[in-house]
Amino acid sequence: MLPLSDANPRLRPSVVTTAVLLLTIAIFFMYQSGDVEAKAIAASAIACELTTGEPISLGEVLSDTCSLGGLPLYPNKIIPLSVVASMFLHGSLLHLFGSMWVLRIFGDNVEDAFGHLGFLLFYLMAGTVAVLGFVALNPTFTGPLVGASGAVGGVLGAYVVLFPTKKVRVLLWFFPLRLSAWVFLGIWFGSQFLITSSAIAWEAHVAGFLFGVTIALLARGPASKRLEGLIAQSQTALQQQGR
User: Fold this and answer.
1) I need a labelling partner for 76 at 20 to 30 A (CA). Which of 2, 101, 149, 196 fits?
2) d(Cα 179, Cα 167) in Å, to the nearest integer?
3) What are the backbone angles phi and psi of residue 46, rounded to the nearest 5°?
4) pLDDT single digits (tens) 191-221
5) Which neighbouring-strand residues pair with 168?
6) Entry pTM
7) What's the gap between Cα 126 and its chain centre?
């Protein structure tokens, strides 16, 4: 199912969501153009590197085996920073489009609930937890982990807690449907466990989603008050315009 839009208008400009979207697109075309895979290995998180603490070697990549030693491909790589870099890199144009499309639909409302700075910190933390969740389950994986899907998964997890009954327009094959957010996102979450392709890091998606659910549950009180305040401000502004 492809989400098309949600019936949940934003209450103020989604500054961070827009900035993250534009920055991620810019990085793909300005940095990754030419050799997407090589630049992903050079900058993104790799489970083997995070578990051994050493940049991966050519031998490890070719043999798909994680082991200490060997001449590193990128000896100056700063491994901790690669965790953050991963959520801004993508494997293909389609991969980029899918992640940014979903972020565009659901990110603005979560940003309303958490505030600009809170949302930025939440997004980065969700992406980090997603990477670490994947590494915990696949500690010897030697391929680059790229994509905003884990961070976006966190956004989806927060959305289902904060806006469970909001309607989402989706496309199922050629048939448009309107589903409650909890139905659509519940189906999305369950579908992650059906993924069999090793090229899709579904574990990161699940980790990010569960992180988003947890944070939203803990912050639901303050988030609800923030949303109520923004709604009141919007109503006041409309009343003043009508005078």
Assistant:
1) 149
2) 5
3) -130, 125
4) 999 988 878 899 999 999 999 999 999 999 9
5) 6, 179
6) 0.92
7) 7
